[in-house]
């Protein structure tokens, strides 16, 4: 029941009722994961792979983008051409989540559609039994009444959705898996350093990759998420929609480039200690942003939807 159509199908509602009944009033086994999370992860992985092919083809085996004048246009082109594809996928993902956000606080059993009612219980000249009556009777025997079942959905499913999706619209460990091409792309440099027994170069390479993989890219994503969430609505014209995709990448790009410049300064000034300091700072920033910043609008939107639903349920005086 993650997307709008599912909550309006009587069969899916029956499955949800059976699951909640099996939990015996507890939501400990309830795990909410949007089905579109998988395609988004695939798109992100492919884009990271393509980006690393472009970047590593412009770098030597043991070199980085030490020239900031060269790095700036390269990053701009990558985030414009490839990042906009990711922006398109995630904006669609957020549109589906927003639909779920609106539907769940207003969930009503009577709103679920079934085929027999749509055809007015007649098919090929014969009367068709009503599935809704059977489902209502079944749910009534499980929960006491349809109203009690709706209350269980609001009290069990909605809080679980807030907890699991509010902070983890795209889980950090999944993002790291999608970004693993960043690690793969530098295996050659690590192998060369190990063969030459240049342990300082190997440690430097490992720290460089850790900064990119564990810190800079997750921070960029955490900054881009609220932008994509805010601009998730599709524009009437295709070119305008493409422009929004590019804008979603350009707005947080300055933050990413700032992290790059700061990292280059620390590496050139403090050497290995600069690498370590940069990694620690970025990991701390990543932990904060991923936990408290990413898609806070989603959680506040759920709260507003719940308040609206509660106000509609109040009897008029």
TrEMBL record:
Question: Mind telling me which residue stretches traverse the membrane in this protein?
Answer: 36-58, 64-85, 165-187, 207-227, 239-257, 277-298
- Look up keyword Protein transport and say if it applies: no
Q: Identify the keywords attached in UniProt to this record, alphabetized.
A: Membrane, Transmembrane, Transmembrane helix
This protein is called what? Transmembrane protein
Q: Which domain of life is it from?
A: Eukaryota
């Amino acid at each position: 029941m993650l997307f709008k159509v599912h909550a309006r199908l009587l069969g899916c509602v029956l499955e949800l009722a059976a699951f909640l009944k099996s939990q015996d009033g507890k939501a400990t086994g309830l795990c909410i994961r949007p089905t579109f999370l998988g395609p988004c992860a695939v798109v992100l992985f492919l884009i990271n792979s393509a980006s690393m092919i472009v970047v590593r083809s412009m770098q030597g085996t043991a070199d980085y983008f030490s020239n900031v004048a060269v790095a700036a246009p390269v990053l701009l082109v990558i985030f414009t051409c490839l990042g906009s594809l990711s922006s398109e996928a995630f904006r669609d993902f957020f549109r589906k989540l927003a639909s779920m956000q609106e539907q769940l606080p207003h969930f009503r059993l009577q709103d679920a559609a079934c085929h027999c009612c749509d055809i007015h219980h007649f098919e090929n000249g014969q009367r068709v039994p009503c599935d809704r009556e059977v489902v209502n009777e079944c749910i009534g025997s499980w929960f006491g009444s349809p109203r009690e079942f709706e209350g269980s959905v609001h009290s069990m499913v909605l809080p679980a959705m807030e907890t699991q999706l509010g902070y983890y619209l795209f889980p950090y460990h999944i993002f790291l898996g999608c970004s693993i091409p960043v690690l793969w792309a530098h295996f050659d440099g690590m192998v060369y350093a190990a063969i030459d027994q240049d342990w300082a170069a190997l440690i430097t390479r490992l720290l460089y990759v850790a900064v990119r993989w564990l810190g800079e890219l997750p921070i960029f994503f955490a900054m881009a998420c609220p932008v994509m969430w805010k601009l998730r609505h599709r524009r009437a014209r295709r070119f305008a929609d493409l422009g929004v995709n590019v804008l979603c990448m350009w707005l947080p790009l300055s933050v990413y480039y700032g992290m790059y410049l700061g990292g280059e300064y620390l590496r050139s000034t403090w050497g290995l200690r600069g690498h370590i300091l940069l990694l620690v700072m970025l990991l701390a920033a990543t932990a904060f942003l991923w936990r408290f910043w990413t898609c806070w609008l989603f959680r506040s939107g759920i709260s507003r939807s719940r308040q609206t639903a509660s106000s509609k349920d109040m009897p008029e005086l």
